[in-house]
């Protein structure tokens, strides 16, 4: 008779990772996985960036490297170069010494540590996430014991236009209690692929500043979205230029293809140097009993690439290759749907940004994509564009055409 483990019923599987399990169990040779949040090359394979291979080869020859613990706050060269990559070399807040950062376990760990900090110092703040948003946002705050009633949504996606619901978003922010935390996607919004343009970001920033709200930026796709690192950081840099306090969670999973190395950085932008230092000291105090100190390998790769001109240029080329392939697949999918005469407008596929497309397929249509065509995608209609290639795109386009014509809303 168990005293401790007997009465526990299993937790539900993670919806995203479970798609891959179901895909792996599917025996059909024409199956396609559009569910995972990772880049795939033209052959449907994971891609180790050539710059990463090059650096790993250099590392294997460098016998001065060791496996000592990093400091609690992580690898200094990584934290500093990652922070500059995000905020830009000209950033006034850096010059004024009011920025600090701590290396975390990729983007998820960065947001989680930020949430732990907020729970400790601002337990009464409401947390606003986009509707819809990346599934983990809500979970992270829930698991830091923010009550469900405090985790609120702001309208984001307008299903009629398949674009941004700016008015809805602004109105919700205007009504948010002061000191609420607003979780924003820096670029390549997941799952919708819809980003505000500059003018819209300015309007969003105005309300956030005026209402004394605090942005928590989630930057998981810098450079990966447009192929341009500065363009993809514009929103964050704009908010920083307005003098706001904020947290920025940075991930190098996608833009370096370092998914399992968990290289992330949580940046704090404060009003002055002593505030920034105090916040960092508490972030360290929170990290120590959580993971104690972060892993080195991914951070070392990123720092090496960012701090060497040639390697940095090599990385840009790798990034552009990924961004260009994604764009080409978006265009090809649109072309195929047009050729099939699939009912509806599909231009959103090329207008959306980043890895994902929010197709507009209904839950039922998504189910039939999987049951009849062995195409795996999220029930909200999100597909990973990287899962497409020249071998499977006809099958995917025909399946979309089939469900749109034959499966009622
Ligand atoms: C919007 C968003 N934020 C954060 C992450 C964090 O990913 P990781 O923890 O692998 O860096 C992801 C990954 O899919 C994401 O899509």
Automatic annotation (TrEMBL):
<dbReference type="InterPro" id="IPR015421">
    <property type="entry name" value="PyrdxlP-dep_Trfase_major"/>
</dbReference>
<keyword id="KW-0032">Aminotransferase</keyword>
<dbReference type="GO" id="GO:0006532">
    <property type="term" value="P:aspartate biosynthetic process"/>
</dbReference>
<dbReference type="InterPro" id="IPR004839">
    <property type="entry name" value="Aminotransferase_I/II_large"/>
</dbReference>
<dbReference type="InterPro" id="IPR000796">
    <property type="entry name" value="Asp_trans"/>
</dbReference>
<dbReference type="Pfam" id="PF00155">
    <property type="entry name" value="Aminotran_1_2"/>
</dbReference>
<dbReference type="GO" id="GO:0030170">
    <property type="term" value="F:pyridoxal phosphate binding"/>
</dbReference>
<feature type="domain" description="Aminotransferase class I/classII large">
    <location>
        <begin position="31"/>
        <end position="400"/>
    </location>
</feature>
<comment type="subunit">
    <text>Homodimer.</text>
</comment>
<dbReference type="InterPro" id="IPR015424">
    <property type="entry name" value="PyrdxlP-dep_Trfase"/>
</dbReference>
<dbReference type="GO" id="GO:0005829">
    <property type="term" value="C:cytosol"/>
</dbReference>
<keyword id="KW-0808">Transferase</keyword>
<keyword id="KW-0663">Pyridoxal phosphate</keyword>
<dbReference type="GO" id="GO:0004069">
    <property type="term" value="F:L-aspartate:2-oxoglutarate aminotransferase activity"/>
</dbReference>
<protein>
    <recommendedName>
        <fullName>Aspartate aminotransferase</fullName>
        <ecNumber>2.6.1.1</ecNumber>
    </recommendedName>
</protein>
<dbReference type="InterPro" id="IPR004838">
    <property type="entry name" value="NHTrfase_class1_PyrdxlP-BS"/>
</dbReference>
<dbReference type="InterPro" id="IPR015422">
    <property type="entry name" value="PyrdxlP-dep_Trfase_small"/>
</dbReference>
<comment type="similarity">
    <text>Belongs to the class-I pyridoxal-phosphate-dependent aminotransferase family.</text>
</comment>
